[in-house]
Specification:
Number of domains: 1
Radius of gyration: 26 Å
Low-confidence stretches: none
Oligomer: single chain
Number of helices: 11
Structural class: mainly alpha
Order of helices and strands: HHHHHHHHHHH
Mean pLDDT: 89
Number of strands: 0
Helix content: over 70%
Amino acid sequence: MTIIVGIVMVLTAVIGGYLMEHGNLALLINPAEFFIIGGSALGALVIASPKKVLVHTLSKLKNILSEGTANKEAYLELLALLFIIFSKVRKEGLISIEQDVEDPSKSAVFTKYKSLFANKTALGFICDNLKVIITTSMPTHELDELLTIDIEANSHEEMLPALGIQKMADGLPGFGIVAAVMGVVLTMGKIDSPPAVLGHSIGAALVGTFLGVLLCYGFVGPIASVLELKAKEEEVYFHVIRVSLVAFVGGAAPQMAVESGRRAIPSSERPSFTELEESIRK
């Protein structure tokens, strides 16, 4: 929602200021400039992105308007799930969760938490590492290192869309100049035309530079920043899982293990101790 608000604010400020100076809005509507700049930028993105990265980027762009999963409710759900798993292990042993992690879709534990169950990456991360804990007697520090490696690999992949879109944004002013130069070339072919015709043609050419800079700093660049922030939020989400698992394997009680995870949550989204306790009781 905030993205839409920001887009409206940018357009209002730019177009509103232009109209305040009695500008002719029709001069800014130049389909050819949009086609040259937008098509070139998209083509450059395709050239620079392997197929799997391009598909991943498109999937992330489709969800750009969503608020993401790293909010207080999502963290409460995550910690409640981990508490149930830790408590079950403490009471019944590691073998008691084997069926749950082997097939989460048939697990009464995992299917109870719909939003987490829908997050296939996080679900896979939890189940894979619980399988490691079940099948090996890995020391705590080695488990911590293994989880860190896993998180780093996932974070690298999640950052690729943001990097690709940022590269695209960086190229937009250049493509705007290309469109402007092409407009000047066309104008030179009309050099014997009246000044009014030449002025209109030069103005249309300069629209290319205007559009390239506006798209870069007003829209595409900020979208890249949003993708980067979402990737970092997901990294923190996985970090909370890591801290909780390592604390539990290290001998902490279920309550203290999830409390360790709670402390790893940024303060803006961190549930209080009481909120976590109430979530666990439910």
